[in-house]
């Protein structure tokens, strides 16, 4: 079911641990359920006609969590991007993309990510971007250092944008954060400068297709002015 709505939707995955705690389960069970929800929402978004979906899976600050939780999260791509899941994405023509650092990832995690990119590279449908070991500040610092190394004398918005991980993605139209918190958490700060923000009290593992549709309907009722004003204002 295609619906009128945003071109690029970004989602901060929040509330996995709190969902698990509320169920009397270990935090890792929340991450497991949250990973399953990624596929559910990705397939739903594709059917709704969304062209770009960016999922914030693991931030540069998440390394500060317990060793056990970090190790579990680093192994999530191996469960999320198995052959069956890749086949489901291929059937929907979803192309997988990654933004973020790769230097700190375990070799197996990086291998799984790169393999999923290769297996979906010819798909022509929605681009599903995993922001994994991503942080907006690190992204901008990396871009600035690369610009300095290239000795570019004058830097404008286009040059900076072309040095970001997201250089092939459009600006974010709608940024969704489930879990009840209301902050950006170092996610796509440059790319979300005119995004509409939508906050949900639902934890990510319970954020379903109806919740996504509600966010899109809310977006469609917004008046996006991009810093300007309308004739009636």
UniProtKB/TrEMBL annotation:
The active site is at residues 14, 62. Mg(2+) binds at residues 14, 196. Binds 2 magnesium ions per subunit. This is Isoprenyl transferase. SUPFAM superfamilies: Undecaprenyl diphosphate synthase (SSF64005). CDD domains: Cis_IPPS (cd00475). The gene is uppS. It comes from the Bacteria. It comes from Spiroplasma chrysopicola DF-1. GO terms for biological process: polyprenol biosynthetic process. Keywords: Magnesium, Metal-binding, Transferase.
């Amino acid at each position: 079911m295609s619906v009128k709505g945003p071109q690029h939707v970004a989602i901060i995955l929040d509330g996995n641990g709190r969902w698990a705690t509320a169920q009397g389960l270990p935090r890792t069970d929340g991450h497991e359920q949250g990973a399953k929800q990624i596929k559910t929402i990705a397939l739903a978004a594709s059917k709704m006609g969304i062209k770009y979906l960016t999922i914030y899976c693991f931030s540069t600050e998440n390394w500060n969590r317990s060793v056990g939780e970090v190790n579990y999260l680093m192994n999530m791509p191996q469960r999320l991007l198995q052959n069956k899941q890749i086949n489901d994405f291929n059937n929907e023509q979803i192309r997988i993309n990654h933004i973020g650092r790769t230097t700190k990832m375990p070799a197996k995690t990086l291998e799984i990510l790169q393999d999923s990119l290769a297996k979906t590279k010819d798909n022509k449908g929605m681009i599903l971007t995993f922001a994994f070991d991503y942080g907006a500040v690190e992204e901008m610092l990396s871009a600035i250092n690369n610009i300095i190394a290239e000795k570019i004398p004058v830097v404008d918005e286009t040059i900076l944008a072309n040095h970001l991980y997201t250089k092939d993605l459009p600006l974010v139209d709608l940024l969704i954060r489930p879990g009840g918190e209301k902050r950006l958490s170092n996610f796509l700060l440059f790319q979300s400068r005119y995004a509409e923000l939508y906050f949900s009290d639902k934890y990510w593992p319970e954020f379903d297709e109806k919740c996504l549709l509600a966010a899109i309907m809310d977006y469609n009722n917004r008046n996006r002015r991009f810093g300007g004003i309308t004739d009636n204002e």
